[in-house]
Structures are given as structure tokens and as C-alpha cells.
Amino acid sequence: MTMSPPPPDDAPSRPGSPDHDPSGHPRHDAAAPPPARFAFDRWTWKEIAYLLANLPAAIAGFVYAVFLVGVGVGLSVTVIGLPLLALGLQGARLLGRAERGRARGMLGVRIEEPSPMARSHRGRGFLPWLWSGLKDPVGWRALLYSFIRLPWGVATFTVTLAGLFVLWPVLPFVARGLANADRAMVRGMLSPSDELENRIAELESDRGVVVDTAAADLRRIERDLHDGAQARLVALAMGLGLAKEKLTDDPEAAARMVDEAHGEVKVALQELRDLARGIHPAVLTDRGLDAALSAIASRCTVPVDVTVELSGRPVEAIEGIAYFTVSELLQNVSKHSRARSASVEVWRTGDRLLIEVRDDGVGGARLDGGTGMSGLAERLGAVDGVFVVHSPVGGPTTVTAELPWRDRVAATTAGT
Could you tell me if 239 and 115 lie in one domain? Predict the structure, then answer.
């Protein structure tokens, strides 16, 4: 007589698969256990051994969890309490790893290891490390697992031990049921939450990109001010000082120097306007993307057709990123593409803002090509954007950028 409950999630069950012979029967070396039978096979003995080992493992985990929480929380008012708790959570990670290994080897549970603690806090001082350790979700889940396992460990040990002497005929079925509960518990509490952890890692990386980009922009502005307008204004002040000295002795020379200073003032003002436009252009603030992108296109060395189909305006941050993305791409068209014409299209689809820049140049643009493409991709990625380059050698080049849309009016209302 054979009972065939559904195999575990991670157990392949198709005939002809690596774990089955052509007739559909499980191979003896399959990684996942076969259905429970009255006969005792190697998987049944593995499950029995696992269930009997639950009690000592649960006692060790429970003692560790209670000690860590008691001591860590009790000493949290001192300087050693929170660091001790952070270290203890790293130890709980090790307990979780041991339990995953035990379930993997004895229950056939295929389960990946969670990602390590956030690397962005390593090497940045004690407080970032402490905060990262205290909010580690993997450590807390492993600690909770260790805490609640004691009653389950007592129950599985008692039932399995009784089955060895009293319930021997049905012990394979009992062991399979209890082991399946263990499989579900391990998967539910010790498996990595891939989506959440990947999202956390992505946001930490994006935050670093935003910080680095902001620092680079500040350095660029400082350099432009120092080398451009500031140096020109210093020379202007010196020239006016000399003109003042010559005003009585040589009025004609003084007049020439004042004329030169007037020209320097105009150049300095233009440099400051250009710098302000590079920070955030007034036309973008006043009139939106359509007018701002048309202004960019007019400065491109090739004819550019601009089409903007937007019923409203996104928030300032997204609008600014869209503007500077198109600006950088059109600069690349002017400098590198050898194109005869280009086009810019901007439209909204659902909650996304889409940008497409095309040119009929020589192609060959790449994200790692040194033309600022990788920086654009990182900047868009920092706000959940997408940046795609299609540029075969010989052209044409099509760059598509996608940004999240948040309506400006809605954002303003939410802020108030």
C-alpha cells in the first residue's frame, strides 16, 4: 500500500527528468524525497534523523535567542548593549545558515543563502556599522526562527521517538508530514526575500550614485566659477584699478581700459548665464520641457526635430533629469555622431515619461564608450528610470529613456 502526497515544491516530478527514470519512478539518488511509503527508505531515515535532531538544535537556538535579547536589551542603556545586540544578530545569521544547511542535506530543501549585510556601511565608521547590524532583517528572522522552534522541536522529537517504538507501521507517514512542516518553516523564515533584499541593495547603490553625482556637479560648478567668471572678474577689478590710476594722467588710456573692462563684464555675465543654465535653466522652470528642449535643439550643430506630447508637467526633479538627459544626448550628437539630422520625442504612457532621441549618424555608441552614457544610465537608475542604447555600427542611433511620472499638481497638493 502506498500513499503519494504531493512532493515538496523543490522536488521535480516529471518522468524523464534527472531525478526520475524513463518510467517515471524516482531515482534512488534524487535530491528530493520520494512519496512516503510503508517501507523505510533512505529519505525516511533522513527525515527521522532530522526530526530527532530538532530538539537539541531548538534548545541551542532558543537559549541563544533568549540570552541575546535579554542581555542586549537589558544593556541597551549602556555603551555595550546595542553593539552586543548587533554582533548577536550576526551570530543569528550563522545559526540560520546552519539550519539551512541541515535542511538542505537532510530534507532536500533547495534554498539559497541570503545576501550578506549591506556593504555600503562597511568601512564607514562605527555608527553606520551599528545601524546596519541592528536593522538586519536576515538576522532578526533567524533569531525569531530560533525562538519559536523550541515547542516544535519538543513536539517533533516526542512524536518521532514514540513512533520508533509505538507507531512503527505509520512512522514513514508521520515523519513525512512533520518533515514537510519543517520544510515550509525553513522556506518561510530562513529563505532570502529576494525581491526585498535586491530592492534594498539597489536603493543603497542608487543612493551612492546620487551622492556621487551631486558631489561631481558641485565640483564642476566650483571649477567653472573659479576658472571662468571669478578669474575674469578678478582681472576686471585689476583693470579698473589701473584705469582709475591713469584717469588724471592719461585719460585716453583710462578710457580704453574702461572699454576693455566693459567687454570683460559682458563675457563674465554670459559665462554666469551659461553656468546658471547648466544648473537649472530658467526656460525650463517658466515654460516646461517643450520650450526648454526646443532651446537645446536650436544650439545643436545638426537640425533637430522636437516633439513633446505632454498634457501636464512632472515634478521638478523628473523634469530636470529629462532636460539634462536630452541635453547630454544632443551634445553627443553634435560631437560624435557625424549625423545630418536628429529627432527628440517626449511623451507620457501611464505613469512613465518616455524620451527617445534618434540620429542618422555613424552609430557605435555604447554605455561604456566614454561619452557620458554610463553616467546618464546611473542617474536615471537612481530614480527608478531605464536607459537603453541601440546604436549599431553604421547607425542609426536610438536612445530611449524612461522615467517615473509624478504629476506636479498632485505632488504640490500632497506636500501641503
Answer: no
Q: What is the pLDDT of residue 207?
A: 56
Q: Of 56-60, 205-209, 261-265, 365-369, which range is least confident?
A: 205-209
- Residue 413 vs residues 128, 305, 316, 319: alpha-carbon distances, Å: 35, 35, 14, 18
Query: Between residues 313 and 22, which one has the greater pLDDT?
Result: 313
Asked if 52 contacts 159 with a C-beta cutoff of 8 angstroms, the reply is: no
Q: Are residue 318 and residue 406 in the same domain, yes or no?
A: yes
From residue 177, alpha-carbon distances to 40, 57, 103 in Å are 15, 20, 15
217, part of any domain: yes
Is residue 176 predicted with pLDDT exceeding 80?
yes
The full DSSP string for 258-317 is HHHHHHHHHHHHHHHHHHHHHH--HHHHHH-HHHHHHHHHHHSSS-EEEEEE-SS-B-HH
Residue where the block lists cell 542586549: 72
- Please, which residues bridge with residue 387 across strands? 401
188 contacts: CB under 8 Å, gap ≥ 6: none
Predicted local confidence at residue 251, as pLDDT: 79
Is 82 a member of any domain? yes
User: Measured between alpha carbons, how far is residue 39 from residues 34, 163, 179, 199 in Å?
Assistant: 11, 14, 17, 47
Tell me: the pLDDT tens digits for 344-377? 999 999 889 999 999 998 888 887 765 578 778 8
**Among residues 129, 153, 131, which one has the least CA distance to residue 60?**
153
Which residue reads 504612457 in cell numbers?
A: 349
CATH number at residue 249: 1.20.5
Residue (of 315, 313, 306, 378) closest to 343 by Cα position? 306
Q: What are phi and psi of 343, to 5 degrees?
A: -145, 150
Is residue 27, in this structure, part of any structural domain at all? no
pLDDT at 142 over 80: yes
